[in-house]
């Protein structure tokens, strides 16, 4: 009985080797982070975009970045328009913000706010 062995193609062999190396480096990097990276509590940074008119109201894009390594849950951000005698406010809640990542959303005002009159405050969040 004669065995039929196929000779490996050089391209197939090189792709297999490169893929194996990439998997090993990725695994090594994840293990290194797991062992040596220091746990940091959530550190939330909020940025506002330009005011846009939408559907009879005024929408402002918002981005929240978590500079820490721990996850923030139920993140509540308040945006205040401090123009005039009465403060107008909007609020947005993000269910989940992993460490070293960002999330985007929109807040809505009924009257047009001026961007330089807006202030943001993180009202609260939880950690799992």
Helix content: 10-25%
Kindly state the number of beta strands. Answer: 7
Q: What structural category characterises the helix and strand content?
A: alpha+beta
Q: Approximately how much beta-strand content do the residues carry?
A: 35-45%
The main pleated sheet reads as:
4 strands, antiparallel
* Strand/helix succession: HEEEEEEE
| CATH topology type of the largest domain | Immunoglobulin-like
CATH superfamily of the largest domain, by name, is: Lipoprotein YajI-like
Number of domains: 2
* Global geometry: elongated
Which key features would you list for this structure?
4-stranded antiparallel sheet, alpha+beta, 44% strand, 1 helix, 128 residues, 3-stranded antiparallel sheet, elongated
Give an overview of the whole structure:
With 128 residues, the protein is α+β, with helices and mostly antiparallel strands. The chain has two domains: 7-37; 44-126, Immunoglobulin-like (Sandwich). Helices cover 21% and strands 44% of the residues. It contains one helix and seven strands. Strands 1, 2, 3 and 6 form a four-stranded antiparallel β-sheet that branches. A three-stranded antiparallel β-sheet has the order 5-4-7, with no helix packed on it. β4 and β5 form a beta hairpin. It is elongated. It starts with 9 loop residues before the first helix and ends with a strand. The mean pLDDT is 91.
């Amino acid at each position: 009985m004669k065995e039929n062995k196929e000779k490996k193609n050089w391209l197939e062999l090189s792709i297999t080797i490169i893929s194996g190396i990439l998997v090993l480096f990725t695994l090594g990097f994840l293990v290194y982070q797991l062992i040596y990276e220091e746990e940091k509590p959530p550190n939330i940074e909020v940025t506002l975009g330009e005011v846009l008119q939408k559907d009879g109201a005024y929408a402002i894009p918002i981005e929240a970045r978590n500079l820490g390594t721990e996850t923030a849950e139920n993140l509540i951000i308040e945006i205040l328009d401090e123009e005039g005698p009465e403060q107008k406010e909007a609020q947005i809640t993000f269910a989940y913000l992993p460490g070293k990542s960002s999330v985007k959303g929109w807040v809505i005002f009924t009257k047009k706010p001026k961007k330089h009159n807006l202030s943001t405050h993180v009202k609260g969040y939880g950690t799992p």
